[in-house]
UniProtKB/TrEMBL annotation:
It comes from Clostridium weizhouense. The gene is xdhB. Pfam families: CO_deh_flav_C, FAD_binding_5. Transmembrane segments: none annotated. This is Xanthine dehydrogenase FAD-binding subunit XdhB. InterPro entries: CO_DH_flav_C, CO_DH_flav_C_dom_sf, Diverse_Substr_Oxidored, FAD-bd_PCMH, FAD-bd_PCMH-like_sf, FAD-bd_PCMH_sub1, FAD-bd_PCMH_sub2, Mopterin_DH_FAD-bd. SUPFAM superfamilies: CO dehydrogenase flavoprotein C-terminal domain-like, FAD-binding/transporter-associated domain-like. It comes from the Bacteria. Keywords: Flavoprotein, Oxidoreductase. Residues 1-176 form the FAD-binding PCMH-type domain.
Length: 293
């Protein structure tokens, strides 16, 4: 049995924000795949839930007038990887979405819940970091935009106030236009397991040189991270195996891997280097394939 004191189900955003404003103890539930597991293990007790599932429009995935892509916080992972907008413009996020759990989980789990849970293993996080995603948060009296790298504060901690709801995630046109991306997840089992290490690579290539290269890691530090030193080194350099190896080595340097029951520090660092190289080479392959179409 779940230890739930009460569950509220507002049908409008305004009603939900008013309820949060009145009661700071309410816990927002989206798909429920994270909260219900914690309840099952008795990590949280006597909880009051605020379900936002009935609020219309929070699951929309749309292209804005300025070319930005807005993904509603209630969009499920199934919706994300089936979206034509995602497939055409930011396929790297769709790859992260389809790697999460099984079909039943993907049909329920939402991108907003995945991010707000603050887990370093979140399958959406590396792609969102590599795409410089921004989060739109609203309270009764205020709305703010937070870059995703500032949203993650530490393991399981994110910058969302008790009276706020995450409305959507925004990927600006400048962060996806003329880029290619790839997401790789390594886990102990091939199916339905959390990542041991995950890597998202987004690249822009011109004249056989990296015009831009973004590398984001999951399960490689207390929060998802970007590999800034590797990215700076890559900018403007020629695409060669030697340079790709150097970039991958610098990516390892950005990580803060540690020993755990799931993997040793040395093994994680080996994975980071190898998966980074594979991710970079895949984006180069995609670029070449599309140029030859």
């Amino acid at each position: 049995m779940f230890d739930i004191k009460d569950i509220l189900e507002p049908e409008t955003l305004e009603e939900a924000l008013e309820l949060l404003n009145q009661n700071s103890q309410l816990k927002i539930i989206a798909g429920g795949t994270d909260v219900l597991i914690r309840l099952h293990h008795r990590n949280i007790k006597d909880i009051e839930l605020l379900s936002i599932r009935k609020i219309k429009g929070l699951d929309e995935i749309k292209m804005l007038e300025d070319g930005s892509i807005e993904i509603g916080a209630m969009a499920t992972f199934a919706q994300i990887f089936r979206s034509d907008i995602i497939e055409k413009n930011i396929k790297v996020l769709g790859e992260g979405a389809v790697s999460m759990g099984g079909p039943q989980v993907r049909n329920m789990a939402t991108i907003g819940g995945n991010v707000c849970n603050g887990a370093v293993s979140a399958d959406s996080a590396p792609a969102l970091f590599a795409l410089n995603a921004k989060l739109k948060l609203r309270s009764k009296d205020n709305e703010r935009i937070v870059p995703i790298q500032e949203f993650y504060l530490g393991p399981g901690r994110v910058d969302i106030k008790s009276d706020e709801i995450l409305l959507s995630l925004i990927i600006e046109k400048q962060n996806y236009e003329n880029t290619r991306g790839h997401y790789i997840k390594f886990s102990n089992r091939k199916a339905m397991d959390i990542a041991m290490v995950s890597v998202a690579v987004v690249s822009s290539i011109e004249n056989n040189k990296f015009k831009d290269l973004r590398i984001a890691l999951g399960v490689s530090a207390p929060t998802p991270i970007r590999c800034s030193e590797a990215e700076t080194y890559a900018k403007g350099i020629e695409i060669t195996d030697e340079n790709i190896n150097k970039i991958a080595e610098l990516a390892v340097g950005s990580s803060k891997s540690r020993n755990s029951w799931r993997a040793s520090k040395d093994f994680r660092e080996h994975l980071i280097k190898e998966l980074t190289k594979r991710g970079i080479k895949k984006t180069i392959e995609i670029e070449g394939g599309e140029d030859n179409e």
